[in-house]
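Trying the structure run again after the queue cleared.
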Amino acid sequence: MNEKGMTLIEILASIVILSIIIVSLLTMIVQSSRSNAISKNMMSATYVAESTMEELDRTISLSTDLANFPSELSKLTKSDGTPKYNILSNVNGQAFFETTVPGYYVYIDANSTSGSTLVKVKVKVYKDNTKAKLEAQMEMLQSWKKI
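Done. Tokens:
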């Protein structure tokens, strides 16, 4: 017997096979899209941390110690003339600062022991000021300006 067409079972089998392949590809595309969004957010937060760290590096190189550091930092202003960094605390060799950039809250911790020529700076980037999710963090050990 010579059959010239496809049977219903052959058509259903091919539809099932194609459906499995398409669902697998769609799952892969959705996962890839999520990974790209997470990666983009992480890169953006890391850029904010890096930019802040570079700005702090320049400011530290102008300061002689942690007591002088906030006054140097307060010279940095936003485009509207307001101070770029808010000083939260500066006690016993430990200073805390904060700032915001579009989409992020930046928290800065600077530590320097008395008589030390070094300062340890941590920059933490959060999505908002609730500090619920840390997006990026950078640390550096920097030397104060020589007097």
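The longest helix spans residues 8-62. Worth checking whether this holds up in the mutant runs.
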